[in-house]
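Notes, Module 5: Reading structure tokens.

Key idea: the token line is not a picture. It is a compressed description, and you learn to read it the same way you learned to read a sequence, by spotting repeated patterns. We will look at two proteins. The first is printed below with its tokens.
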Amino acid sequence: MSPPPKIRLRIWFTENGKVRFVSHRDVARLFERALRKLRLPVAYSEGFSPRPKLSFGLALSVAHESDAEYLDVELTEHVGIEDLPGALSAALPDGIDVVGVAELEPGAASLQQAITSCTWSIEVLGAPPAEVTAAVAEALAATERPLERVRKGKTAVTDVRPAILALEVVGPTGGGIELRADLATSPVSLRPAELVEVLGIDGLSEGRIRRLHQWMIIDGVRCEPVRRPDPSMGQRWQRAS
């Protein structure tokens, strides 16, 4: 007898305000608690210490905010999801809001497999606009951009220029300058703090950082892991392909 098909929901949520100082692991615990509170039929792993089958996308660094976080949840049976965004938001702390929920098609790739890049809003501090603009232009014109990284006690130099998919100066902020960057997550990845480093400006540091989008490629088209709700149709969610 074949096993029953997996029922997977993809939850799209935001993290803003003081909750940005909560670790990725603690955010996972908050969602586990919210799912239990709503008595959803979450599937559990087997073994001595069963765990709910939750799978997050790319971890968000502490102190970063986000408009685009995602979580996959496996269920044992179908549930109605039209009202689930509001119910989950009410069960979660202030600062974590569920924007949409979609039921995934069978065989849909996991978030870790599917995400290829992210769009970031990055505030930089400590340099005048003209110097930042020149550094951005230089980075885009460069054929390579070496970055020294320490992994497992070993130092290696990686060319991260292929990971800078797009970069522009948006304009001034209250205390610095906002950059908009599309940064790849594979095969070469680059974090916002590392981008600030490879701009090569002495004394430049990051201020407010917000993830605006996570992107995946389906049939050659870039799209979000959950389609944005269409307010004109009164929809809180749509099915993800």
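Here is the second protein, with the sequence above and the tokens below, as before.
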Amino acid sequence: MKLGLQLGYWGAQPTPNAGELVRAADEVGFDAVFAAESWGSDAFTPLAWWGSATRRVRLGTSVAQLSARTPTACAMHALTLDHLSGGRAILGLGVSGPQVVEGWYGQPFAKPLARTREYVDIVRQVLARETAVHNDGPHYPLPYTGAGATGLGKPLRPITHPLRADLPIWLGAEGPKNVALTAEIADGWLAIYYSPRLAPMYNEWLDEGFARTGARRSRADFEVAASCQVIVTDDRAAEIERLRPVIALYVGGMGAPELNFHAQVYRRMGYAAEVDEIGRLFQSGRKTEAAAAVPDEMVVETMIIGDGDRVRTEIKQWSDAGVTMLLVTCGDVEQMRRLAALADS
């Protein structure tokens, strides 16, 4: 099992010891380091800044939001980071949700699957640099010929020659159609709230994508990177209690009540009644009660919590379910060393 350090996105301030953690990831055997973005810090700059002190780990976005940049601008970020890191970049992309897309970026959220397909195709055109980049699709037309166009635009190739035409593109996906699309056009799946118990269902979604005409990869060379809290502790109950508010926030407060992708994921796991109750309490401002309504099972379904033997056993279960990398958060270097040893044992 490979490990990826998930730096996430910043809160009010940068993570104080992030640079130390990134350097440690390079030293203790982590495969990759990932940075995210929401509506504050961006995903690329931390990788360039802290990643400059590393020599081995891959540097990935998990995820860069489609609506934050045009496809060509995103490809510029990726090829630049890939050159600076000596070919270690992973471009992780995701559509985010309508609250962010329309509320922060001022872009329409409609047709996320079609937008993703167009976006990835354009990025790959830039990275291949075989011809001038061109797109007839309705979402990212190149050259632009719509309202206000001068008519002077022309297809261009990137001035800088990309280091790798096959720079890996991974997609963050939660629903069946999006996961199938990921298997069809991407090199890896960034899975959030993955449940090994539901691996047969995920495999059906993935197999649908792999079977499509022109699919880029097969299961043999496709990466599944699952976000997973891995906590080594002798007090499992205390850690479960600490994590209830996190689940309540994502299930009850992330996204609009009528369209919350994280809540939909837990519904598929069989927690529909619990999701309804958590959402009702959270939306009414009763956040403490919402956290208390999160059952133990909802916490441990998507996380690994326990002593060393339990963690080692469950890591194997996730691997047997098809996960090739666990994306973990770590607070200190010692925790990273323990996880690296357990994942390698």
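Summary for the second protein:
- The two ends are 9 Å apart (CA to CA).
- The longest strand covers residues 89-94.
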